[in-house]
Amino acid sequence: MTQDVIVLGSSGHAKVCIELLRAGGSSVAFCIGAPESGDTCLGVPVLHGDEHLKGLRSRGYERVFVAIGANKLRQRLAAFATDLGFHLVNAISPQAAISPTARLGSGVAIMAGAVINADCTIGDLAIINTLASVDHDGRIGNAAHVAPHCGLAGNVTVGERSFLGIGSKVIPEITIGADVTAAAGSVIVTDIEPHTRIAGVPAKTMHKRT
Ligand SMILES: CC(C)(COP(=O)(O)OP(=O)(O)OC[C@H]1O[C@@H](n2cnc3c(N)ncnc32)[C@H](O)[C@@H]1OP(=O)(O)O)[C@@H](O)C(=O)NCCC(=O)NCCS
Predict the structure, then answer these.
(1) Domain range spanning residue 208?
(2) 38, 76, 143, 159: most buried by Cβ count inside 10 Å?
(3) Among 13, 68, 209, which is best to mutate for testing ligand 1, by the most ligand atoms less than 8 A from CB?
């Protein structure tokens, strides 16, 4: 068995996650990219196609990180990898401030400057991106993504696979359902139903372009 990590993804998000893994003392052996991806990502060789995962597992690799920004796809690929017997590792910046009473799932990415305060729960495969903050008692669902510079006040719940776009703000005690997309700069002052797309200040349901 080897402790080296396999990273699923080879995009810009993967670059950030590779650097977080390295900062945490891990080596990244291979990335798995799409057929059209380049051959290396930050010096890591890229294998093209998810089918390579099975072979890597039989070669003794057992640690994987899913560095895919799209929430549903991240969750689907993580299930594929764990079904093959991989363990999901976390990629956490040494420059993140994480309360000792926060609970983190597996496969989580926490970028530089993120703040996670007392008694928060961060679900499996969640991303807390650069300079985002989740205040006390926050609950971030599995595979949710809190983009850079978001600010969540105390007691905010974010549902599974929901995405808060860059710079979004959420007032205290708000519950955001699953599979919500909040556009960049949304200010969320009411609870949000699942599967809703919202934008604006205060955030309202987005209307599709005709
Ligand atoms: C909401 C978003 C996902 C785009 O969705 P989309 O379906 O492609 O939306 P469109 O670009 O077709 O825009 C639809 C309408 O919403 C408006 N809109 C788009 N983004 C908006 C925003 N952030 N705030 C307010 N209105 C916005 C558009 O102006 C458009 O309005 P119109 O119909 O009056 O012209 C995108 O604009 C966004 O905010 N992405 C966030 C990206 C991000 O934070 N990434 C972080 C990666 S780490």
Answers:
(1) 92-210
(2) 143
(3) 209
Q: Is 109 helix (H, G, I), strand (E, B) or coil?
A: strand
Tokens representing residue 187 in the block: 């200010």
CB neighbour list of residue 56: distance below 8 Å, 6 or more residues apart? 6, 29, 30, 47
Last residue of a domain, one of 42, 60, 89: 89
Ligand 1 pocket, Cβ-based, cut-off 6 angstroms: 129, 147-148, 165-166, 181, 183-185, 199-200, 206, 209
Nearest CA to ligand 1 atom 42: 165
Domain of residue 124, CATH code: 2.160.10.10
- Are 130 and 202 part of one and the same domain? yes
Residue 114: Cβ within 10 Å count: 25
Tokens 């899913």 appear where?
66
Distance (angstroms) between ligand 1 centre and the Cα of 183 equals 5
Nearest alpha carbon, ligand 1 atom 1: 183
